[in-house]
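Readers of this paper often ask what the protein records in our data store actually look like. The remainder of this section carries one protein's record, kept here as part of the documentation.

:::
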Amino acid sequence: MNRPTLYGADYSVYVRIARLALEEKGVEYELVPLDIFAAEGIPAWYLEHHPFGRIPAFEHDGFRLFETNAIARYIDEAFHGPALQPADARGRARMGQMTGMLDAYGYRAMVWDVAVERLEKAEPDEALIAGGLSQAETVLRVLTSLKVPGPWLLGDQLTLADLHAAPIIGYFLKVAEGKKRLAQFAEIHAWWGRIAARPSFAKTEKAD
């Protein structure tokens, strides 16, 4: 098999999720830089890989995918290495519930409404940040309730749920309000220390 290609930018939470899966499986891959916020816009050729012009997109031996959850599951199932999905149906369902919740309720609140608003705006919208923090608190509370006893979100096995949550929460922790909120949830705070210490997490950190 040829090594796969991942299209996207190293600042992207979702590109990082796919990269974490590749790193944890020990798969060599090529990252093709693609900045969807570039002044010149999205290149026309990229729309053949992702018709909505988002990142990441993925290609392996002529097989193309977009949408991070689909990419991550393919990486786990197509390549050798440690399994990143539970073997049982209920475990896989719980994993999907966690990643779906983070996508639907966590990503925008934690990343855009809190971190990006605080870090990137000259005059941050404090009402938007407050709403994001409230939503983030709910997400962390629910994630705590769903977490299975053990080092990882689903117990003893590192799964795609961990790799999905880590970049979103990591971005949230770039600001003081995020660190303060996470500290209120001891189990997730301890989990964060473990996932952030993994070599895959350090290797996929955006260069300053």
